[in-house]
Amino acid sequence: MDDRPMLRLIALLLFSCFILLPVAEADPLRAHEDTEARPSDSLSQEEDQSASSSWFRYPAASQGQHAEAAVLIALPPGYQDVSSRRFPVLYWLGQDAPAAMRRMTAAMRAGDMPPVILAMPRLEPAASAEQTAQTIAQDLLPWVDRHFRTLTTAGHRAVEGVAEGGLPALTLAVRQPELFGALSAIAPRLPSAGESAALWQQIDHQADALWRAESHIRLVADAGNPSEARAVAVLADHLQAQGIANQAQALNLGAVGFERALESMGADYFGFWREALRV
């Protein structure tokens, strides 16, 4: 008996099954803008799982070929409910991102904080403020806009820097008001008068753009740190002299700056974001 027809039929069936198999995604971080990127399994899961948040790796090409950085993304309540809805984005810069994320997502669930996508990049201690600002503007921001349902106008994008995240946040908002329409700096670690010349020059250079953008700016100094309080007051006066409105205040923040700021400002803290993000 000639078995060749049967063998040909088996070969055809096997080939058809192979063709119909789904093709695996080559890049685990590639995704359509209306779908979530995949969390990185190699990063510690420090986040509150109930807050729809995860750590991700994203390519940081501005820092060198094959460079990567990490970011904690927290999605707001309602993100999964309407697939066409887009949200503002708040980039939060500080060393205690998981704790800040828990407080802010809890405030969103309570209705105090407007619903926003929180992007909290892990800060590299060795990176300068300029390097951090460059990585966020050139790498992280477009990555977030590709992978999540964001509102991409400056009026719906903000940055907050706490402590060592304050100077990178200031650098971002001052240099690129076309990208960030709101800035909040809490207990920022500002450089000395001599070292801050570059920031002052940048403010002067961008004064017209900041004024036209009607950027929302909040500066909160630690009243218990006299040198910091003076530096923030000088910064606020310099902005005001350039016609750039800002909200400046000094609070006793101590070692728990962000937590104390939330407690001290209460509803005003979240009210700033409702106005600044036009939600």
Structure description:
The chain is α/β, with parallel strands linked by helices. An eight-stranded mixed beta sheet has the order 1-2-4-3-5-6-7-8, with helices on both faces. The longest helix has 19 residues, at 129-147. The termini are far apart. The protein has helices spanning 4-20, 97-110, 129-147, 166-175, 197-213, 226-241, 257-265, 267-276, and strands at residues 53-59, 68-74, 89-93, 117-121, 157-162, 182-186, 216-222, 247-251. It contains eight helices and eight strands, in the order αβββαβαβαβαβαβαα. Helix 3 packs across helix 4 and helix 4 (166-175) packs across helix 5.
Our estimate of the beta-strand percent is 15-25%
The chain-level mean pLDDT equals 82
Ends distance? 78 Å
Fraction of helical residues: 40-55%
Number of helices: 8
Radius of gyration: 23 Å
Ranges with pLDDT <50 over ≥5 residues? 14-35, 44-51
The class by helix and strand makeup works out as alpha/beta
Give the overall shape. Answer: globular
Order of helices and strands: HEEEHEHEHEHEHEHH
DSSP summary, beta strand count = 8
Query: In which order are the strands of the major sheet placed?
Result: 1-2-4-3-5-6-7-8
